[in-house]
Amino acid sequence: MNRTNRTFRSCVGAAALAALSIPALTVSIPAIAAPPATADAKQLDQAVEALRGVDSMKADFVQTDRSGQSVNGVLTLKRPGKIRFQYEKSANMLIVGDGKALTLIDYDVRQVQRWPISNSPLGALLDPKRDVARFGKVLPTGNPNVVSIEVRDRTHPEYGVITLIFTRKASAPGGLELTYWIALDSQNKRTTISLSNQRYDVPVTDNDFRWNDPRPRNRR
Fold first, then answer.
1. Does some domain include residue 213?
2. Rounded to an integer, what distance in angstroms lies between the CA atom of residue 76 and that of residue 56?
3. Range of 134's domain?
4. Residue 178 falls inside a structural domain
5. Is residue 88 part of a domain?
6. What CATH number has the domain bearing residue 98?
7. Residues 96-149: tens digit of each pLDDT
8. Is 158 part of a structural domain of the chain?
């Protein structure tokens, strides 16, 4: 097993956690009476609207664990709830989310792992009946052009914490661009996903979220 694969496997759990964060914040917010919005509430609403405005996206990413080891890849996103982490060839792995579950395909060892959304980190945030504002908290950044949102379900600490960092950009949906996020799981494993070269409203089909099953046919 090469060094890249060892690095990847050391933080794959946090990668799965991170994968769930994007569709988590694209859920609809019920129309209910609310008190006058504070500055933080406005920033949170802006971040949610920015993510909701992304119908499809592709971006390059770098995944880095807490020891500083990293692996590259391409992220593909399509609403509602579809996401694909295509890792560099040397990793020989893939993570695909279909809106119902997250699947890890490991071609080196010919294994497939699947996490039902209800059992996945931050899975509670994928319920469209829940109000995202209950789980999001604006963190100070000291920079008016940077918005930081911490997302956690305090009733389920085992789901971990996601911190999403946005940069103000006029050409991005909603004027905010998701540039990276930090995932901290319940075992205190930290993973950072940094995005670059974001392309919005690009052609993305359901075929982009299909994958080849490496398992022997008689064992599926």
1. no
2. 8
3. 3-27+38-205
4. yes
5. yes
6. 2.50.20.10
7. 888 777 888 999 889 998 876 554 444 433 444 445 556 788 999 999 999 998
8. yes
pLDDT tens column, 149-158: 888 877 777 7
Distance between CA atoms of residues 155 and 76, nearest Å: 31
Cβ partners under 8 Å of residue 85, min gap 6: 15, 19, 61, 63, 73, 75, 94, 95, 96
Which residues of the chain form beta strands (DSSP E)?
Answer: 56-65, 70-78, 82-87, 93-98, 101-106, 111-116, 136-139, 146-151, 161-168, 176-184, 190-200
Q: How far apart are the first and last CA of the chain?
A: 24
> How many domains would you assign to the chain?
1
Q: Mean pLDDT in the chain? A: 77
Structure tokens at 13: 């759990």
8 A C-beta contact, residue 176 and residue 46: yes
